[in-house]
Amino acid sequence: MSGQSQQQRVFITAAAQGIGRGIARAFVAAGARVHICDIDQDALNAMAAESDQISCSLTDVGDEAQVEAFFREGLEQLGGIDVLVNNAGIGGPAGVLESLDSDAWQQTVQINLNATFYACKQALPLMKEQQSGAIINLSSTAGIMGYPLRTPYAAAKWAVTGLTKSLAMECGTDNIRVNAICPGAVSGERMDRVIANEARARDTSEAEVRAAYVSQCSMQTFVDPEDIAAMAVFLASEGGRRVSGQVISVDGDTHTLA
Question: Does residue 213 have an active-site annotation?
Answer without folding.
Answer: no
